[in-house]
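Second attempt. The first submission of Large ribosomal subunit protein uL24m had a stray character pasted in from the spreadsheet, which I only caught after the job came back as garbage. Lesson logged: always re-copy from the clean sequence file. Corrected sequence (283 aa) follows.
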Amino acid sequence: MRLTCQAMVRKLHAEMDYARHFPKAYLDKAQRHVPMKVYDNRFGAPPVIRWAIRPDDWAMRTKRPWEYGEVENVIRQEKIYQRQLFSTKFYRRNWNKLPTIPAENWTIFPGDTVQVMVGKHKGRKSNVSHVIKESNAVFVEGLHTKLVDKFNKGRMKEMGIGDVFFDQWEEQPLFLHKGEVQLVDPSDGEPCTAKWVLNDSKTEYQRISSRTGFLIPLPSRAFTTYDYVAPETYLEVPGKDTPAEAVLKRTYMPKLSTFEQEIEEQMKLEKRPEGETMPTYWY
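This time the job returned cleanly.
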C-alpha cells in the first residue's frame, strides 16, 4: 500500500509572483531595509543596528517599491524616519493593519477573469493585470479606474505647456480581503470564491470553485516572472545559470563522523585524541 503525505506536496501556486526571482538584497535595498551602522562587540549582547528604515516600520503600499514614482516615496519616508530618529518627536510606526492572506491561500493571479463587485464598474468582467499579495491588492484591466495627473500639470504650466490634457485613466486597487473582486466560474460565468484541493492522484494542488466544484485552471500569465514569460521558454546563460543536470546530481555522501572530523580528513589535519578540545580565550 502506497501512502502519500499531503504536507509533502509542493504548493507551486504559493511561489508564483513576478518578483520571485529578484535577489533578496535588491528587495531590501528597494525597501531601504539596509543597516546604516552596526554597533557590535557589546560583551556578548546582541548588536544594535541602525536601519535606513526599520523592517518593522515598513508598510506595503499598492505599488511595488521599485515602480516609477514609488522610489521617491520610499526615499522621502527614509528621510523623515532618520530626521525624527534624532529629534524630540517620535516616529509614527507604520503598523500593517491589513489582514494577512497566506500565500498558499491566494487564489487570484494575473490573467484570471474576474468580476468587480463594487464601484461604478460593479458587475463588469475583465482580466487581472497584476496583483500585490503584500497589500491584498488586485488590479483589473480597464476597470475601477481613476483620472490621475501623470505629468504634474502645475510644472507643465510653468514651462509654458498649458491647455494640454495630461491626465490618464489608471486602474485602482481592489482589495481581496474586502470581497471587492471575485473570480468568474467558467461553468456558469458567475462570480465565486475558490480553494485549493489535491487532485485524485494526490500529486498536485488544483484550484476549484467553492460553489460548484468546477476546476478553474491557472492562466499562462500566472507563471510570468522578471526572468521569463513562460518557464519552458527560458534560455540558460552559460556561466551564470546552474544546469539542471548539476542541480539533480547527488554529491552528498553520508559518513559516520562529525563536521569537525570531516574537515580534518579533507584538510589532512592532525587528528586530536578522543574527547580533547582546543583551548578557548576571552578577550
